[in-house]
Structure formats: C-alpha cells, structure tokens
Automatic annotation (TrEMBL):
It holds the Pfam family FUR. The gene is zur_2. It comes from Paraburkholderia solisilvae. One of its GO terms (biological process) is regulation of secondary metabolite biosynthetic process. Residues 1-24 are annotated as: Disordered. Belongs to the Fur family. Keywords: DNA-binding, Iron, Metal-binding, Repressor, Transcription, Transcription regulation, Zinc. One of its GO terms (molecular function) is transcription cis-regulatory region binding. This is Zinc uptake regulation protein. Binds 1 zinc ion per subunit. Binds 1 Mn(2+) or Fe(2+) ion per subunit. Zn(2+) binds at residues 124, 127, 164, 167. Its cofactor is Zn(2+); Mn(2+); Fe(2+).
Length: 175
C-alpha cells in the first residue's frame, strides 16, 4: 500500500480525537458573535435557544443528531421540548448557519458562518466528523455537469461519504 510507512507505528493513538483542522479556527464565542451579527444584518434574531443549539454544534465539532442536541438541551433546560429544538435547527438551516448531513441524519455548523458560500461536505460515516471543501469552481463545474446530464440537484448540499484519517487509522490498528 502506498502509505505504509514503517515509522507510522510510533504515532499517537488514532483514537485521540479527530483532527482539530475540522474545527472552526475561531473560538465558539467568536463564531457565535459572528452568527449573531449575521442574523441581525438579515433582520432576524439569534434567540437564546437558537444560539444555544448553535453553540452545542460548535462545541461538538462534528455532525450531531437532533436527539443528542435535545438531550444536551435538557441538561441545561430540563423542560426543553423536541419542537423547540427542531424549530431552532430549522431556523439555523434556513439561515445557512448549519448543514443537514443526510447520509448520517445529523447536523453540523457551516464552515463559513457568514458568507453563505457553501462548499462540498465530506462526511466521515464512522464518527461524523465533517470537512467542508471550499472549491467554488469545482462545485460549479460539478453542478454544470449534473445539469448537462439533465438533472437538477435536490437541495444545496453536496455531500461526499468518507472515512476520516483518525477512523482510517483506528480501522488499520484494529485490523
Ligand atoms: Zn456551508
Ligand atoms: Zn471518522
């Protein structure tokens, strides 16, 4: 195999959390402030519940299922009802702050909280880590090809199923 490096065995445990490169460069606080300003500019409000759901997603750093978000909300606000969390997610989706990851039925924060230029999502099917590739030309070319073939994409998202580096290493170590 092409990447069989003998010295790779000395690397630290592959289970040691997914690459920090997948996370936002900015701190969650900075990201929340950006999102807040972005909503205000659009004449919308990042209400406390919307903000909390976004914060939970920022802190998770990977795609998270709605019921996990609900569980976390209930730890903070014991009375949280599912519709409250779902409505907050709907808002965040429509504002473009969050992506729905269909292949694993989960949600993740957009890598580009304010510019509304969505990339292509690469989703680890094992751990839910998501990387958003920001390649506008490639994205346009792909969409053009799809349209040339007579199709229109169902929705904005372009989602590629993958296995992240940490999960590949874990799999190699287990095998
Ligand atoms: Zn995005
Ligand atoms: Zn993974």
């Amino acid at each position: 195999m092409k990447n069989a490096k003998a010295s790779a065995a000395t690397e630290k445990s592959p289970r040691a959390r997914a690459s920090a490169a997948h996370r936002h460069a900015a701190s969650p606080e900075a990201a929340l402030a950006l999102a807040d300003a972005y909503c205000r500019k659009r004449g919308e409000k990042l209400t406390p519940i919307r903000r909390k759901v976004l914060e939970l997603l920022l802190n998770s750093g990977r795609a998270t299922k709605a019921y996990s978000l609900l569980d976390e909300m209930r730890e903070i606000h014991p009375g949280s009802a599912p519709p409250t969390v779902y409505r907050a997610l709907d808002f965040l989706l429509s504002a473009g702050l969050v992506h729905r990851i269909e292949s694993i039925n989960a949600f993740t924060v957009c890598h580009d909280l304010t510019h509304c230029q969505h990339g292509m999502l690469v989703v680890c099917q094992q751990c839910g880590s998501v990387t958003e590739l920001h390649q506008p030309k490639l994205r346009e070319a792909l969409i053009a090809q799809v349209e040339d073939a007579g199709y229109r994409l169902a929705g904005e998202e372009i989602e590629l199923k993958g296995l992240c580096a940490a999960c590949q290493a874990a799999q190699a170590a287990a095998g």
